[in-house]
Amino acid sequence: MTITLTENAARQIQQQIVKRGNGIALRIGIKKSGCSGFSYTYDFADEIKNDDQLYTSHDTKVVIDTSDLPFLNGSQIDFVQEGLSSYFKLNNPNIDSTCGCGESFNLKESAKV
């Protein structure tokens, strides 16, 4: 299982943890929602739980619950700025399709198994 960060994403995570005043990693997950079926969740982790997998890239940590790993395997996390919007973007090879607004996605059958 592999999860990587771009330098932009690593820099943004580090800045947000400093701004927040505590935390050790960005926590990424998946939940059922939206018109296509799934969406990402983002939070900051203050601890590593028993069911967590820790990834480090560019000296920055990302935590993912092991139940979400099959859906995120091979993903690259980026941080992009488009006009006045800025957000984390996952380049996830397990996505089959996205909804028109881009907020939710459907997974390939191989990732669901």
From TrEMBL:
Signal peptide: none annotated. This is Iron-sulfur cluster assembly protein. One of its GO terms (molecular function) is 2 iron, 2 sulfur cluster binding. NCBIfam families: iron-sulfur cluster assembly accessory protein. SUPFAM superfamilies: HesB-like domain (SSF89360). GO terms for biological process: iron-sulfur cluster assembly. Belongs to the HesB/IscA family. It holds the Pfam family Fe-S_biosyn. InterPro entries: ATAP, ATAP_core_dom, Fe-S_cluster_asmbl/transfer, FeS_cluster_insertion_CS, HesB-like_dom_sf. GO terms for cellular component: cytosol. Residues 1-103 form the Core domain.
